[in-house]
Backbone:
């Protein structure tokens, strides 16, 4: 009763909605070669009511992980618990019942062309045998919830890409699941529509208290909407945690991808230094770095950078051109002292050109 998690609440008040313990999936190789390890001892614990991003390159194991979460794939070993039920241990009717607690949203909604938006939303309820009056009530709620009022009688050919995805989200919510799994939900949408769909997912989390898991390769999606993030590489978790902590950790593999540094201008007559900050209590903005340079009789110019505000805190990767007051490059002694002070304060700084 005393074990506590991020919110400081005891476990019985804040149960984890998804628990993966030592999850492993091995596929036999075609032709009798070495087996393929798609997931290799995954341990992941997600608290309810949060939006969690799972990222990784092609072949990292993201799709296999989703199939194990939904019971479409049986793990080779380990436990897959969703809302208190070990999905991996179920078959048949029991597995189908457990899946009702898991909604799915895909990159392409794959709506039935012969059905209206409302009829597509109702489809999983029909399959589950929900009475017609109850189906109609639930569909009306969902149409309003996802912002499709006035479009519910349109067929897919009459809907925009964003509206089609809203139908897909409503369909995923039809059975009132505890978890909504979204597999690349915005990769087929333009930038403006992507922001609308992410805003909708954020609103649904706030209104319904649902847990949302987004599988994506788009770091902009993670920055925009996720509370926590996990990086998969070669079937293993290489980094996981709260988004701000992960983005602000300059030593972690995800920081450079979440906060990418654009190429610096060429032909600069100065010493150029890369600075990754965000995990430092002393240096919270690029202006703080520029003020420190002045203490070493140097003028610092910001020549390239990416600065994001995550969780109300500024996190950035910048390149500074350092010159002395006469316009020449800062002295080697001054640069060494400048870098040492930054390092002592938790800023990862390194010279990139001379």
Residues:
């Amino acid at each position: 009763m005393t074990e506590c998690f991020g919110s400081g609440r005891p476990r019985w008040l804040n149960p984890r909605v998804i628990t993966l313990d030592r999850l492993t999936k091995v596929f036999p190789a075609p032709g009798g070669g070495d087996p393929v390890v798609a997931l290799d001892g995954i341990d992941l614990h997600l608290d309810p009511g949060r939006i969690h991003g799972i990222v990784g390159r092609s072949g990292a194991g993201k799709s296999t992980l989703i199939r194990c979460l939904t019971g479409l794939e049986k793990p080779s070993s380990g436990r897959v618990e969703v809302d208190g039920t070990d999905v991996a241990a179920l078959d048949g009717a029991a597995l189908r019942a457990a899946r009702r607690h898991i909604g799915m949203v895909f990159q392409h909604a794959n709506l039935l062309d012969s059905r209206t938006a409302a009829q597509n939303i109702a489809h999983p309820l029909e399959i589950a045998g929900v009475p017609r009056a109850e189906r109609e009530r639930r569909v009306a709620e969902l149409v309003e919830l996802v912002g499709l009022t006035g479009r519910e009688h349109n067929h897919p050919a009459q809907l925009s890409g964003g509206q089609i995805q809203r139908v897909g989200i409503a369909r995923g919510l039809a059975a009132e699941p505890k978890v909504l799994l979204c597999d690349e939900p915005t990769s087929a949408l333009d930038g403006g529509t992507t922001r609308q769909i992410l805003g909708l997912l954020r609103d649904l989390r706030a209104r319904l208290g649902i847990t949302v898991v987004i599988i994506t390769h788009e770091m902009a999606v993670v920055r925009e909407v996720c509370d926590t993030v996990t990086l998969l590489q070669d079937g293993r978790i290489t980094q996981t945690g709260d988004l701000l902590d992960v983005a602000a950790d300059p030593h972690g593999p995800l920081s450079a991808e979440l906060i990418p540094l654009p190429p610096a201008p060429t032909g600069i007559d100065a010493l150029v230094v890369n600075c990754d900050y965000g995990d430092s209590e002393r240096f919270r903005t690029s202006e703080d770095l520029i003020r420190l340079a002045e203490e070493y009789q140097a003028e610092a110019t910001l020549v390239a950078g990416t600065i994001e505000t995550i969780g109300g805190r500024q996190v950035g990767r910048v390149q500074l051109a350092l010159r002395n007051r006469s316009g020449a490059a800062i002295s080697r002694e001054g640069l060494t002292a400048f870098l040492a002070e930054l390092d002592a304060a938790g800023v990862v700084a390194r010279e990139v050109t001379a």
